[in-house]
Design a protein that fits this description.
The protein is of the alpha/beta class. It folds into two domains: 196 residues, Periplasmic binding protein-like II (D-Maltodextrin-Binding Protein, domain 2); 98 residues, Periplasmic binding protein-like II (D-Maltodextrin-Binding Protein, domain 2), CATH 3.40.190.10. 48% of the residues lie in helices and 18% in strands. It has 15 helices and ten strands. Strands 2-1-3-10-4 form a five-stranded mixed β-sheet, with helices on both faces. Helix 2 crosses helix 11. The longest helix has 29 residues. The radius of gyration is 23 Å and the shape is globular. The N terminus is likely disordered.
């Protein structure tokens, strides 16, 4: 009797273990592996991190691997070469590549403002909103053709300032802009959060807001190839849907967003991190949805046209809101 009972228990346990393993394997198979290359690892991309670390991608059935290109050009190259499924960075590259024959689309908004601020440690420089305030100042930007440089050049033209004469631009690698201020190579440095809040915590000030000066603009977008859209539209939708949910979460739950950000940016003081997230949300830099406003798209294209990166405005629609609109109707 005891022997039979033991055999029964062993059989039940074994069956449960096998069933559990098979269920786990079955669950793993349901997750579709996809890759996205981001231009930088930065708080500005909080939408992507909340989508991943908050479990939104997984809930959509995706196993997302995030790679970092180290720059917009490198990230877009990873997409056009087919090494990744999606890219997050400067969306203007889609239009520039389209002129050379590559077919792809911007499928989701990621950053809806020029989320850059001009910071300084020079107490003589007072905050200004008119770009003519850059006269006689040296500004550090990220290297051309990054949107950072392009916008500074466009603002100088708007103020009728001649670069090299009335004002100067120093192009510096990403991550070195604050050091450029401290070693006196620049008076003002364009930078992103959380650097802005860190500079303030160190006694510096925000001298200029590019987010306010430029207005609505698709500063960062999620891009993919037309090939993936045609062949795997369900994967594209799942990705955009998860991203959309993450953006909504950021606006609805600041505390929850901070907790997710703390794990990814553990080396940043919580107070600084909270300030940085708030500035990104309050400035409108973090969009409330994945839908790409036509006005924002046209704004980034016009800047590229002005500085000569684009020969002409594209004659085809290079944004695809199909997936974002569908997500809006279901969320």
């Amino acid at each position: 009797m005891k022997k039979s009972l033991c055999l029964l228990v062993t059989t039940i346990v074994s069956t449960c273990l096998i069933h559990g393993c098979s269920q786990e394997q079955k669950s793993d198979k349901k997750l579709i592996p996809v890759k996205i290359n981001q231009a930088f690892e930065n708080l500005l991309y909080i939408g992507l991190y909340v989508a991943e670390d908050g479990g939104f991608f997984e809930k959509e059935g995706l196993d997302v691997k995030i790679e970092t290109g180290g720059g917009d050009a490198q990230t877009f190259s990873a997409l056009t070469s087919g090494k990744v499924d999606f890219a997050q960075g400067d969306p203007a590259f889609v239009a520039i590549a389209n002129e050379k024959g590559w077919q792809g689309k911007v499928i989701s908004a990621a950053v809806h403002r020029a989320a850059l601020w001009g910071v300084t440690f020079d107490k003589k420089i007072k905050p200004f909103s008119d770009p003519s305030g850059f006269k006689n100042l040296t500004v550090a930007t990220f290297p051309k053709p990054n949107t950072s440089f392009v916008m500074q050049e466009e603002l100088d033209k708007r103020a009728r300032l001649v670069v090299g004469k009335d004002t100067k631009i120093v192009q510096v690698p990403f991550g070195t802009e604050i050091a450029t201020l401290k070693n006196n190579r620049a008076d003002i440095a364009q930078t992103l959060e959380p650097n802005v809040s860190q500079v303030e915590s160190q006694g510096g000030t925000v001298a200029f807001s590019y987010a306010d000066a430029m207005g609505p603009i698709l500063f960062t977008g999620v891009m993919t190839s037309q090939k993936l859209i045609d062949e795997k539209p369900e994967v594209v939708y799942k990705f955009v849907s998860a991203y959309d949910k993450a953006l909504k979460f950021i606006h609805k739950d600041p505390a929850g967003t901070l907790e997710i950000a703390k794990k990814r940016f553990a080396n940043i003081e919580e107070k600084v991190l909270a300030s940085a997230i708030k500035r990104c949300v309050d400035s409108g830099s973090v969009p409330e949805s994945s839908v790409i406003p036509e006005e924002s798209w046209n704004s980034i294209l016009k800047i590229r046209l002005i500085v000569g990166d684009l020969k002409a405005l594209p004659c085809v629609d290079l944004i695809d809101n199909t997936f974002a609109n569908k997500a809006q109707n279901l969320h």
